[in-house]
Amino acid sequence: MAAENYKEVERRVSKACARAGRNREEVTLIAVSKTKPLEAIEELVAIGVTEFGENKVQELCQKEESVSTPVHWHMIGTLQRNKVKYIVDKAYLIHSVDSLKLAQEIQKEAVKKQVEPAILIEVNIGNEETKSGVAYEEAENLVKEIALLSNVHVKGLMCIAPFVENPEENREHFRRMEALRKRIQAEKIPGVEMSELSMGMTGDFEVAIEEGATYVRVGTAIFGERNYAGQEIK
Ligand SMILES: *Cc1c(COP(=O)(O)O)cnc(C)c1O
Hints:
- Helix content is 38%, strand content 16%.
- By secondary structure, it is an alpha/beta fold.
- An eight-stranded parallel sheet has the order 7-6-5-4-3-2-1-8.
- 41% of the residues are buried.
- Residues 230-234 have low confidence and may be disordered.
- The site of pyridoxal-5'-phosphate (PLP) has 14 residues, from strand 8.
């Protein structure tokens, strides 16, 4: 089931890349496996999928330990400072850094474990009260501050766009994210890459690709509906 769905999403990703005149290699499809059992993950591992997204520290750690094939685990959910120590050496990319304090904690634990974690800065693109992320206007400053932390490497930006019925409603948000990424990249901040843009989910990943996403995070379209009804994505 998950494998079939994945292949269909893959086809849609390819088509969106073609429409946008982008190479398929420019976009990484992350299978968001949160709340889903190991069997579903293994089904994808068996067809060669290597990118998985989780939003809870404990779940990421458990799955990381259980899946023996080496794959990349993306931390996409809100990260509490007291849990940084559990994932700093396990997450391939932390998508959800939205404060200097959190980045400082990542730095501290990274030094202890002698690792150099890659992170993205989460931007609250829709200015939604319920969502985490730094304000659009403050993102550049935050990147500059985090750039001074020796072990933490800023690779780009991430956003969770508002939930909308029609994905076209998010196009402008995605466009502004790409504009911000380019603007910060042009600053050539030492140690900051700014090449990645993590945006687009089941409802809007094609529009996100058309507007410059380099990572799309897709859960429902691959694994089916999750078992909790109406839970806010934080
Ligand atoms: C759950 C989640 C996703 C995937 O959402 P779907 O709509 O199921 O594709 C993507 N990003 C984040 C941060 C999430 O928490």
